[in-house]
Amino acid sequence: MAEKRILLAEKLVTKDPKKLSMLIGFDGFKDEIIHVVDKRLDSNHFVRLDKIEALAKRIEKASGLSTNIELVPTAEKIGGNGPIMCNALSKHKSDITYIGALGYPTIDDVFKPMEENVKLFSIATNGHSDALEFDDGKLILGKMASLNDVTYERLIQMFGFENLISLLSNIDMFASVNWSMLPHMTDIWKKMIEEVLPKLPQKQQKPLFFIDIADPEKREKQEIQEALGLLKHFRSHFKVVLGLNKKEAYDVADELDLFDSESLRHMQVSLEDLNMELYEFLQLDSVVIHPVDRSCCVVDGTFYTEEGPYIAKPKLSTGAGDNFNAGFVLGLLLGLEPNEALLTGMSTSGFYVRNARSPEFKELSEFIKDWATGKIHED
Q1: Which range of residues forms the domain containing residue 364?
Q2: Distant-in-sequence contacts of 145-149, Cβ < 8 A, 24+ apart
């Protein structure tokens, strides 16, 4: 395993991500990172609730009564699956265009640092997320009414049909993420299939189309089935890759009736069986699943899995999955083997949760080498 990582680090040194071109969209949030107070020690110090279960018990105890829960904002950052994934990929100096809800009529200041490496185009006001962070996960409380403005008609009106055709005709990857929080995303995909795809050139080397639907729990079963059923139609012009975290993968399999609900609810179906069944049912080029401590994918009918650089107490966890996605697609775009792309994805997220920022390309290969030689801490 260590030798595999060392070889990967050496291989990355020979690659040049600056040659890659990408379009990413269409969401956008300002994330406020928040800690939940357990005990207040004085005006400047407190003990935080470090487990989601502890907060759940406190809330349950207040049922029928009332309680006060103190929230302490610790930082504001770029939010939304698209901007976080885009920001991670931008560290490698690729040619990237981002279209989404970044603020209107002017782009929100939180996204301004991205302008150094990304062409930003905003079509709507951004949403706002309160991200309550714990050692075992996070609760994201979103305010997203403005995302109702992210529609196909507004995209075409503000960006231009011919501009969109030209951009999609000359990219290595198109990513459309955060379906669950964009009410009109299914309609955008439908109209792209009907109006945009027929205008695109057929290429021998198809670009990637990456999709992360995000947590679909609040969406209706029929909506989920309809949206996922559209994705295979993009294969006429793209290699279609669907990314899911562990919870999303089991939830989606349940909504598609791929296994009995009880087995999925208790996660008794193996990741390999789950991954393969999703891949075969959806008829895509790849499905990738990323739990916290490992990741797996099916690419062209073959299953791959790798363990990751787990850390018990991350410095920042909000955005870790988006960083995995960025690293995984980067690996595929650079021509790495699927298992190497998994390692690149987990190394990107592993660096991110330890440093509260995404790695530059040199830092990524150095992290992989340090991981291989036991220099990466897990506590």
Answers
A1: 2-33+78-372
A2: 146/101, 147/27, 147/101, 147/181, 147/182, 147/183, 148/183, 148/184, 149/101, 149/104, 149/123, 149/124, 149/125
